[in-house]
Amino acid sequence: MDTIMIAIAVLTVITPGIELEGLSGTPEQHRLVADIADAFNLDSLLVWAIIQSESAWNPLARSSEHCLGLMQILPKYHGNFPDSMYFDQEFNLNVGCMYLAELLEKFDGDLEQALTGYNYGPNHRVTIKQGTSGYAREVIKRINKWRLHF
Asked: pLDDT tens for residues 46-64?
């Protein structure tokens, strides 16, 4: 369990009913995300922020673009398994975290580029002229807001 999960557990015990503003999902989902994020050397707050933006923690979310599950995985880019597999939270998180880790490596740790690639597709890069994508700004703002509690 990473330090973020420990901090949330401590905050919850010390201050019953405390919530991180804008963080939905269940404690079980939060633990699963923390474990899988840790396996891919990702910050669990980053993955939580992506899930909050992508699906609001709905494991059965389906977009008009056919992105599926918690991390809104687009099957045609990730194995084209039956849709039901992408609705399995553990499978979806593993695929999403693996993809995110690959993007971070591809973009040399540049979080804004990796988030833009996650949202728009792996071959999309933000140019200096374009600036940061709205999606990347939203996710980073959420992470920074939550990090204030730790």
From this structure: 999 999 999 999 999 999 9
